[in-house]
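User: I've been trying to design a sequence by hand for this structure and keep getting stuck. Would you show me what you'd pick, starting by listing the structure so we're on the same page?

Assistant: Good idea, let's start from the same input. This is the structure you sent:
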């Protein structure tokens, strides 16, 4: 993947790149704990995340959603750019 940005002058900025891929996803899993028969049940929702994009996601902060982006439509490679 390659992204080229052009600017009239050098300037420090924050940049967020958002894109969707069908080569990543998640499935819910649950951690259920009971300390005693008289104690409340603790149920914790967890996520098993998978990705096969071939890109290093070490510094990526993913957003998990159960929605279906585009509802069958094909999104462009770069979905949006936000600069602040």
């Amino acid at each position: 993947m390659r992204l080229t940005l052009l600017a009239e002058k050098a300037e420090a900025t924050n940049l967020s790149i958002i894109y969707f891929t069908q080569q990543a996803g998640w499935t819910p899993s649950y951690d259920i704990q009971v300390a005693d028969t008289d104690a409340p049940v603790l149920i914790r929702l967890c996520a098993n995340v998978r990705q096969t994009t071939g890109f290093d996601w070490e510094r990526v902060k993913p957003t998990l959603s159960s929605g279906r982006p585009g509802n069958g439509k094909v999104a462009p490679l770069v979905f949006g750019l936000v600069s602040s």
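That's my pick for every position. To get oriented when you compare it with your attempt: The two ends are 23 Å apart (CA to CA). The chain has no helices and four strands.
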